[in-house]
Amino acid sequence: MASRRDEIADHLRELIINGTYAPGDVLPSRAALMATYDASTVTISAATKTLRDEGLVWRVANRGLIVQDTRPLYITLSAAAPPGNGRGPWETACHQAGRDGTMQLISVERIPAEPDVAQALQLSNGTTVVRRVRHALLDGHVVMLDAAYYPLALVDGTLVAGSGKVDGGILAVLIAAGVLDPAAARVQELVGARAASKDEAEALRLRPGVSVLTAERVTRDDEAQPVELLHRVANARRIRFQSDDQPLRSV
């Protein structure tokens, strides 16, 4: 059974999503919300904190809680960023939509491939791979979690295996290094949905058990050899996955 805090947060969230409170609007004061919901100041504070954690509202000094832009961002899974602009696919999608988006590098590790990773990359179990973990931020809030895997033998000595953020996106680096031919490369994508794990919910600032979008992408070179496995977990209210201009194929 939902707590009173969650009930109030759910109702306010719905009012924001359906446009009753538009971006830039100020939510009613704490006293007004206490009267509307017949709730204590502690309960109202907890409910509005939930909305702040989700990025739906921000507190502005001397103004109150300001509703943020909650429009979902549409991103193309199989996109590589145009060369030379310094932005990866995520930053490019945000820029084109007029939104503030950044990709934050969390870690780069060389690890033995687990069976599922090894199978996707057509490697033997335990083969060393490079794992790059990143968080995608939209308007200052984490909305998507990325974990990408690359065969070390393929990317050793490149920026992909380095410890720094790769400006312009990983695929752009692989294309520039001659590892990928964009005209011949192919991707296989699997999109789904499931309940967020505890760690995912914490990172995305969602309630445990809330549904998230998932995506798995395998990128192959012109000889059909896998060069990248990408796992994505996204806030389903803030992100939409899409494919553009795909040919219609018979089945």
TrEMBL record:
InterPro entries noted in UniProt: Bact_HTH_transcr_reg (IPR050679), Chorismate_lyase_/UTRA_dom_sf (IPR028978), Tscrpt_reg_HTH_GntR (IPR000524), UTRA (IPR011663), WH-like_DNA-bd_sf (IPR036388), WH_DNA-bd_sf (IPR036390)
Positions of the HTH gntR-type domain: 2-70
Entries under SMART domains matching the protein: HTH_GNTR, UTRA
Stated name of the protein: GntR family transcriptional regulator
Classification via Gene3D superfamilies: Chorismate lyase-like, Winged helix-like DNA-binding domain superfamily/Winged helix DNA-binding domain
A single BP term in Gene Ontology: negative regulation of DNA-templated transcription
Keywords from the UniProt entry: DNA-binding, Transcription, Transcription regulation
Keyword DNA-binding: yes
GO MF, one example: DNA binding
SUPFAM superfamilies according to UniProt: Chorismate lyase-like, Winged helix' DNA-binding domain
One matching Pfam family: GntR
Highest taxon in the source lineage: Bacteria
Keyword Transcription regulation among record annotations: yes
